[in-house]
Specification:
Residues 1-92 form the 2Fe-2S ferredoxin-type domain. Pfam families: FAD_binding_6, Fer2, NAD_binding_1. The chain has 353 residues and is α/β, with parallel strands linked by helices. It folds into 3 domains: 2-94, Roll (Ubiquitin-like (UB roll)); 102-199, Translation factors (Elongation Factor Tu (Ef-tu), domain 3, Beta Barrel), CATH 2.40.30.10; 212-347, Nucleotide-binding domain of ferredoxin-NADP reductase (FNR) module (Rossmann fold). It has helices at residues 21-27, 65-69, 178-185, 221-234, 255-264, 296-309, 323-335; strands spanning 2-4, 10-12, 45-50, 53-55, 72-74, 78-80, 85-87, 102-112, 117-124, 141-145, 152-156, 166-172, 192-199, 212-217, 240-246, 269-274, 292-293, 316-321, 343-347. The strands form 4 sheets. The chain has a 6-stranded antiparallel beta sheet. Strands 17-16-15-14-18-19 form a 6-stranded parallel beta sheet, sandwiched between helices. Strands 2-1-7-3-5 form a 5-stranded mixed beta sheet. Strand 14, helix 4 (221-234) and strand 15 form a beta-alpha-beta unit. Helix 6 runs parallel beside helix 7. The longest helix has 14 residues, at 221-234.
Amino acid sequence: MTLKTRDGRSVAFACGPEERMLDAAERQDLYPPAQCGEGSCGACLAYVVSGEVEREPSGPSALPDRERAKGGVLLCRCRPLSDVELSAPYDAAMIRFEPEPERDAVIEAIEVLSAPMRRLVLRLGPGRDGGTGVDFEPGQYLELTVPGTDLTRAYSIASTPNWDGRVELLIRLQPGGRFGTWLNETAAPGMRLVARGPRGAFVLRDRGLDPRWFVAGGSGLAPVLSMLRRMAEWGDPQPARLFYGTWRPDEQVCQDELTTLQSSLPGLEIVRTVANPGTEPGAEPNPSWAAGTGSVVNALSASLEAASRQGEPLPDIYVCGSSGMVEAIRAAAVKAGLPEDRVFHEQCGGAVG
């Protein structure tokens, strides 16, 4: 098996027809980006360049027909039937060559941001090298486990790398979700979790001065917030625009943080939209909501059309939200003339939280 990364590097590992590719790679201390291991998230996507493979069933949002038609496979749900060459949609730096770090994580704070949304602040214990810092690429996530249970979930990081081990997460409580129920009813400051990671290939790309547009739906704001904070810390010069869509006005969280970012990241534009400007589904419009209404997809489409008409450079687009939103954003970008390889995405909300 040969896996060639986007930046032209290659790694090889042995895998027989009786073993899934991801299992074989990890058995040989090769850890490409992956998450669920069940074919439901799409994080381990790669493309068959040559060779024959057997695909096992997977979720349609994890491996859409358009990706399958291009030779897409999920390493966690695929077995080789011959020598196989794969192409990875990420750089070699995203591949680890040792098991992911595992650290204790103490809950410092749980903040109610809205009825369904919580801010969870953790302090990570020392790593393998004894250091307390937390290093990752903005856009990546941590996998959290409640000790003594099989309760494990992955959540994107909203903060930026630091030396004191502080990690901020935004978590949407899903109806009936085990982790969300534990967080809402049992968790308290001082309690401990096990954190693994960082993981993920949804990270900023260095593509010169091309504009960067970000699209976030609900808790998909977390990795985008981390990316924008990093841009502010480093003084990145790329023009930035955030499209933030929620169902109701009261679900628009982190407004103070976004206002601060507009002060520290000159030129950052924020487009806020709500699908229903009332306070409850079916309610009358809320007159206090003065920003946009409707779909965040429509807001992005209108901005892309305006940029094209005015001869402005088209942006790279980073999108995090539900599988339906991600697919709609991709389709809108392609319709506007943006190549697919300039749309970078991460799905959230796939697992019941």
